[in-house]
Amino acid sequence: MDHNLPAIAVGIVLIILFAIYAAGFAWSAHGRQRADYVSVMLGNIENYTTHRGIIVREERLFRADTGGTVVWLVDHGQRVRIGEAVASLQGTGSSGQNMVTDVSGVVSFVMDGMEENLTTDRLRTLTIENTNQIAPQAFIQDSVNAGAAAFKVVTSNTWYIAAYINISYTAGWIQGTYRTIYIEKDGEVVALRTRLHMIDNAGLYDYVVFGVNNSLLEFIDKRSISFRLHNVTQQGLIIPQTAIAEHMLLMIPNSCIHYDEEGNGFVLLMDNTGRIVPILINVLLSDDEGVFVLRGSGDLQWGDAVLDYNGDIHEISEVRIRRGIYVLSSGVTRFREVNLDYSIIDGDYIILNRALNTNIRIGDNVMIDASNITDGQIFF
């Protein structure tokens, strides 16, 4: 199971470069049926994979010797010195007891209960479950019982993000080099310069520890985080979702294809009465194993029985889904396959990855509703 949550959680930035589609219509040669079309246009896709990680810091918890109300003597995020009083415990009928730090660093009143478990000593032994866990709700103590944590002091400006990342994203990474990652924080994306403190292979994942020596205060109250490795905007092709046609293709083994004297391919179909019926086929795709024809072409259906050269029966059981659009060119519709990998759905439209759909051009006129369109249909 891939613990790098897609968001596949995924983010979209769609910028339509024109206010509206260039829209039009043509009339069918059969019954003058109107057919609407739109022009393919450009939009921007911010496409990325979100990864999960856990923050590890050098931090020290300070616990109360007695119970009482906590009165802060310094500010959250303030840097303190050894021997400085950080808080005062006001008990019933007492004048207060100061809590003094014996380490220097940055004070945080925000705690999550993981401070003593997630230490830098454990950086080499954290599991994928550790790095993907959701931290408990952070809290601030206004009053404490004896032995309870009242505050913490972060003792180092360097902090760490530990994560397990699929090896497809970490190829070529070298320990000690620098990388910028992008962290989602409070609805915004923050660019963070990091150093690859550690990278160890764990099968399909690399265990990566990013070292950070900046932005300590910005993340001092965070533990579980989501981040991405890239912040790249790609251009995509915008078309209506209704413009995409989906065809089921039936695979017929090469051994079941027969030819007449004119070279036309056909199959010998055994119907449910046992009668053998020759059916012409229109090959759309082929590979080393056989050819693919449209389901329903010549009344062929999934599960039909066809005969091979030797008269043995083969059941049509393998199918392939073909997706595409109908482009209107010189009044004639032409089917063009589309690759939906890394595409983004935005409302009634879909944004196709341009690099994977080089057969589609900006300005192509695409039929809006593909449900009743066929390849080669003529419009005036």
CATH homologous superfamily name of one domain? RNA polymerase II/Efflux pump adaptor protein, barrel-sandwich hybrid domain
**Major beta-sheet overview:** 6 strands, antiparallel, barrel
Helix content: under 10%
CATH level 1 class label of one domain: Mainly Beta
**Number of helices, where a helix is a run of at least 4 consecutive DSSP H or I residues:** 2
Structure in words:
- The structure is a single chain.
- With 380 residues, the protein is mostly beta strands.
- Helices cover 2% and strands 46% of the residues.
- β31 and β32 form a beta hairpin.
- It is elongated.
Give a brief rundown of this model:
The protein is mainly beta and 380 residues long. Helices cover 2% and strands 46% of the residues.
Secondary structure layout:
Elements (H helix, E strand, L loop, with lengths): L22 E5 L6 E6 L1 E6 L4 E6 L2 E5 L4 E5 L6 E2 L4 E6 L6 E4 L4 E4 L1 E2 L16 H5 L6 E2 L2 E2 L4 E6 L4 E8 H4 L7 E8 L2 E15 L2 E8 L11 E5 L4 E8 L4 E9 L4 E2 L5 E6 L5 E5 L4 E2 L3 E5 L10 E3 L5 E3 L3 E11 L2 E6 L6 E3 L2 E5 L11 E3 L13
Antiparallel strand pairs: 1-2, 2-33, 3-20, 4-15, 4-19, 5-14, 6-8, 6-13, 7-10, 8-9, 10-14, 11-12, 15-18, 16-17, 16-19, 17-18, 20-32, 21-26, 21-29, 22-23, 23-24, 23-27, 25-26, 27-28, 29-30, 31-32
